[in-house]
Amino acid sequence: xxxxxxxxxxxxxxRAWLSSVATPxxxxxxxxxxxxxxxxxxxxxxxxQELELVGRVSEWERLRYDAGWGALDWxxxxxxxxxxxxxxxxxxAEEQRFDTPRRNELVYVTQQLVAPTIRQxxxxxxxxxxxxxxxxxxxxxxxxxxxxxxxxxLASVSTxxxxxxxxWVLTGQKVWTSxxxxxxxxxALCRTEAHGERHAGLTAFIVPLDTPGVTVxxxxxxxxGATFNEVFLDEVRVPDDLRLGPIGTGWKVALxxxxxxxxTSMRVxxxxxxxxxxxARHLGCGLSPVARDAVADVWVHERVQSMNVARIVAQLxxxxxxxxxxxxxxxxxTETMRRISAALGxxxxxxxxxxxxxxxxxxxxxxxxxxxxxxxxxxxxEIQRNIIAERVLGLPRSPA
Length: 400
Ligand SMILES: Cc1cc2nc3c(=O)[nH]c(=O)nc-3n(C[C@H](O)[C@H](O)[C@H](O)COP(=O)(O)OP(=O)(O)OC[C@H]3O[C@@H](n4cnc5c(N)ncnc54)[C@H](O)[C@@H]3O)c2cc1C
Fold this sequence. Notes:
Blueprint: H1 7-21, H2 47-66, H3 86-95, H4 105-121, H5 124-135, E1 141-144, E2 160-164, E3 167-178, E4 185-191, E5 202-208, E6 214-219, E7 228-239, E8 243-244, H6 250-265, H7 270-283, H8 289-319, H9 325-348, H10 364-376, H11 381-392
Parallel strand pairs: 1-4
Antiparallel strand pairs: 2-3, 3-7, 4-5, 5-8, 6-7
Helix pairs in contact: 1-3, 4-5, 4-6, 6-9, 7-8, 7-9, 8-9, 9-10, 9-11
The structure holds flavin-adenine dinucleotide.
């Protein structure tokens, strides 16, 4: 067993490796007026730009994984180092200081949602086939869960999977699928049993997206980009060896992915809170009491959020599987974002809605319009509140 390095030694080693492969970022400490004038939280990319970004990120992820700096908290058998989860955050803080490609949503889904789900539910053949390739981003996998009639109420999924010899035939429609245009596979939740208890009638599959019968159509987002999609499955044949988990356990497989998603989402607001504070410092002491209040509110919430993250990470280290506490983490993150939006209104006023050409003002508009998407994706704020009420606080179930 490799000994766990002391955090300071680990940081130093990470810095040394990063210096050998990347250049330091000029504005590492959120200096106002430097760096790209971009604050968006959802990508606004054309298809070609999305492909190009994913290509660059994957190249970086491969370099990282091969050098032993990817998959830090995975066991060595999967190319990891078996370090406590907190080391991932230590590494990321160091990486932020360097000019490296910004991971996009599909890469997070691949490495942090789908790979752990296959580790928990996959056969050993599936684990051998997929885990290293997903962690290394040799293949990318999106999440084919939501449907026009199944979002918050995911157990209403109606995409059918019917057995045909040693394969399954999938027919239905998925929607809001992030990254489907550039993904190689999709983790799909399908209905294999039309009658009986609805959760028990679901089964999960890993669907190769180049199979005949798969059609992906981009959906234009409020931010202008189109990185999520409708995915139509028209008699798509999937071999039984791509069924993920036993028949009828699709709901449990999906819960594994969703729990990982909440834990991944709980860190999202940190960068932007720092940048908002930099904006407030730049504007100086002439701020109105309302604006000062709003900025202090962001700071307080960002602190609470980061303590929640630390608590959840510590808990993960004790018993691995993320539980309903992830909902607190996700909700704390979207609450910080909501407060950042409110503070931006107070700080920037009309400059947030009309482009004055001034750095670091109108560019925030893209962030503000992206926030509602984050409050919905991965389970809406209301659904997180229901989970916290029922599964953390033990309150009575909400009426159906
Ligand atoms: C940016 C983005 C990326 C996404 N990426 C993916 C992806 O990659 N793969 C994927 O499968 N899906 C993805 N989604 C879909 C997302 O998971 C769903 O949008 C979400 O689960 C909500 O479902 P819905 O849109 O059907 O809304 P609905 O479930 O119809 O909800 C509508 C409103 O009613 C509220 N509501 C619903 N039920 C309750 C209740 N019981 N109690 C209180 N309030 C309730 C909701 O909070 C919401 O405000 C993405 C969504 C977004 C915005």
